[in-house]
Amino acid sequence: MNINEPNRIVPDRTSPVALVVDDVHVHFDVYLAASGARGIKSLVTGQRTRATVKALSGVSFVLRQGDSLGILGHNGSGKSTLLGAIAGQIACTSGRVLVRSQPKMLSGASVAMNTRLSGRDNITLGLLSIGMKPEEVAAKELEVVEYTELGDFIDMPVTTYSSGMKSRLLFAIKTHQTPDILLLDEALSVGDKTFKQKSLERVNGIRESAGAVVMATHQPAEIRESCNYAMWLKDGRVMLFGDPEEVIEEYESADGSRRDTVERRTKQHGTHERRRNQR
Amino acid sequence: MANLGLGVNETEGLFEPGIARAPGPYLKRMWDLRHFMMTEARGKLASGHSELLLGRGWLVLEPLLYVSVYFVLFGLALRTGRDLENIDFLSYLVVGKITFQFLSRGVLNSAGALRGSPKGALDFPRATLPLGYVLRSALAYRVEVFVMFAMVMLRGATPIAHWLFAVPLFLLMFAFAFGSGLCLSPVIRRFPDIHPAMSHVMRLAFYSSGIIFPVEVILLDADNGLSWLRLYTLVNPFFAFVKVQQAIAFDYEPVPLEYALLSVVTWSIGTFVFGFLWFVRDESA
Q1: What is the mean pLDDT of residues A202-223?
Q2: Which residue segment(s) compose the domain that A66 sits in?
Q3: Euclidean distance between CA atoms B97 and B67, whole angstroms
Q4: pLDDT at residue A187, rounded to an integer
Q5: Is A230 domain-assigned?
Q6: Residues A166, A141 within the same domain
Q7: In angstroms, what CA-CA distances link A46 with A115, B138, B191?
Q8: Is A212's pLDDT higher than 90?
Q9: What is the three-class DSSP state of A19?
Q10: Which of B15, B36, B121 sits opposite A129 (nearest CB)?
Q11: Which residue stretches of chain A are H helix?
Q12: CA dihedral in degrees (A75, A81, A82, A88; nearest 10)?
């Protein structure tokens, strides 16, 4: 099965289209660091060794309202780049993304919080940042505060929080904005077991409230629990798109062959090194 | 479009994600975030003093302390104000320093607002980043300006109605600081090394804007002709802003007020309009 058979991936359904990813390619130009005499030469001449990294190569799919897509893939497979392209944060080299409303990214890694302010202040800011009016914020704030289960810590500066508490706060702020399109980047693998369960329920809730969810993860269990589609991404290409069970099975059985890939890469890298040394 | 199995009108109403690319909608997105930006600026300003025992008292203490240091060094030790006839040097210093402080803090911080920020659009208008810094600087200035007029009164001036002109001047200063941030921050994102160098340019501006010694007495002396230094002083926006503020606070007019007003209005509207259009264009590219 292949992504280039698009009729397979868009089932005949009538709910409105929420997100179109149309043959998206993302290439990054990177400059390789040169050292020693070559480095000095490059400082003088201004010439740098440039390489193009193909982070995404021809990704296409369509999600409708109510759909939830889980992206599987190892580190560096292009998951975060794809989410960035969907959010409009990363420009597509070719192809395009179309959305029904501005997607909101919920990233587990970067914390867009003011850590010197209290959790409550951050909630207020988070709600204001989506254009809520101050009156509406006052009402909504309590709901979010209760959801975080942070107790008295809610009025302490975020610097005093553990990383689990921080991500819980961030999760609560982001998901109480109920965006139409929610993007999750490894976000569910935070918090203790009960909160994890709670966040899964939350994601399901947003999904049901007619939004679309795209989540990136290495953990198939999360996808099994909350997605109706899965995609396996490898080296920026879609290996498989479709029913979660099917994709997860293929992904996991291919995982054994992963070692070969790593070895092959190391070998290539070694050749590259040698070539450089010869110059 | 690749064959995605979509119906004819199914992509209707869909748009490309990211940020508005036209100045009008961009400005509207920023306006929608006004409550957020004010709350954030207030919070950040407060949190800057949160672990200090005197807390927000530092908003008053800070201008008092830096003015005191300059007064001891330049007013008492070097007596740089001896060329000022009938003008109290401490008032001259306090008005100049506090006006310059707001401008330089606003320009420097907002110019560096995009440092380390990734290329490409975010899901919010990025011009809110430099604006956040200028807002914070303005909130501190709100306190400093009271310190300023209190000091001028302590030195014997009586409050006069045209102190109220400090309000429109503040708006022009705000536009200039924000406009400079809009002009410079996209450049500094590409060449971050400009930012540390800029603080030295600011220091040059500080010494040459008639704050700790009356540069106008030397440079605007008609005998000197049209020298480069004289030209620089006439063009220097910081000099013009400081002189207008001094004219408002204690009727000091070393240069014709019309000239200084023309300069501050041109600088603020110019940097703001050009900066905004340039910033939005750069962000959309």
Answers
A1: 77
A2: 6-25+60-103+179-278
A3: 7
A4: 58
A5: yes
A6: yes
A7: 40, 41, 15
A8: no
A9: strand
A10: B36
A11: 6-9, 36-45, 79-87, 119-129, 134-148, 163-175, 193-208, 220-226, 244-255, 258-278
A12: 160
* Residue B252: closest CA among B99, B97, B86, B103: B86
- CB–CB of A40/A92 below 8 Å? no
For range A258-273, the mean pLDDT:
44
Model pTM above 0.80 = no
Output the pLDDT for position A35.
Answer: 67
How far is C-alpha A178 from the geometric centre of its chain's CA atoms?
17
Give pLDDT, residue A276. Answer: 42
Residues 181-210 of A with CB under 8 A from B: none
Q: Are residues A173 and A214 in the same domain?
A: no
In what helix (H) or strand (E) does residue B138 lie, and over which residues does it extend?
helix B128-154
A225 shares its domain with A274: yes
Rounded to 5 degrees, what are φ and ψ at A55? -75, -35
Asked if residue A51 lies in contact with residue A32, where contact means CB atoms within 8 angstroms, the answer is yes
Interface contact A157-B50, CB threshold 8 A:
yes
Pick from B2, B14, B118: CB nearest A6: B2
Sign, CA dihedral A149-A155-A156-A158, equals positive
What phi and psi values does residue B53 have, to the nearest 5 degrees?
-65, -35
Task: Enter the tokens of residue A186.
Answer: 């490894």
Can you say whether residue B65 is alpha, beta or left, with left for phi > 0 and alpha for psi between -120 and 50 degrees? alpha
Q: Are residues A206 and A97 in the same domain?
A: yes
pLDDT value of position A265 = 45
Smallest CA–CA separation between A222 and chain B, in Å? 26
Q: With beta carbons less than 8 A apart as the criterion, state whether A218 and A73 touch.
A: yes
The predicted complex's ipTM stands at 0.72
Cross-chain Cβ contact B6/A124 below 8 Å = no
Q: What tens digit of pLDDT does each residue of A145-200 get?
A: 988 888 899 999 888 988 888 888 888 887 776 677 888 877 555 567 777 777 77
Quickly list DSSP for A117-160: SBHHHHHHHHHHHTT--HHHHHHHHHHHHHHHT-GGGGGSBGGG
Are A134 and A203 found together in one domain? no
Q: How distant is the alpha carbon of residue A23 from its chain centre?
A: 18
| Sole residue written with tokens 């210093």 | B93
Domain extent listing, chain B: 23-27+54-284
Instruction: Give chain A positions within 8 Å (CB) of B43.
Output: 114, 117, 121, 125
Chain B residue at shortest CA distance from A18: B14
Q: Which residues of B touch A90 (CB under 8 A)?
A: 120
Residue B280 has pLDDT above 60, yes or no: yes
Across-strand partners of A230? Answer: A70, A242
Tell me: the pLDDT tens digits for B127-167?
999 999 999 999 999 999 999 999 999 998 888 888 999 99
A residues 102-131 near B, CB within 8 Å? 102-105, 114, 116-117, 121, 124-125, 128-129, 131
The rounded distance, in Å, linking the Cα atoms of B37 and B132 is 6
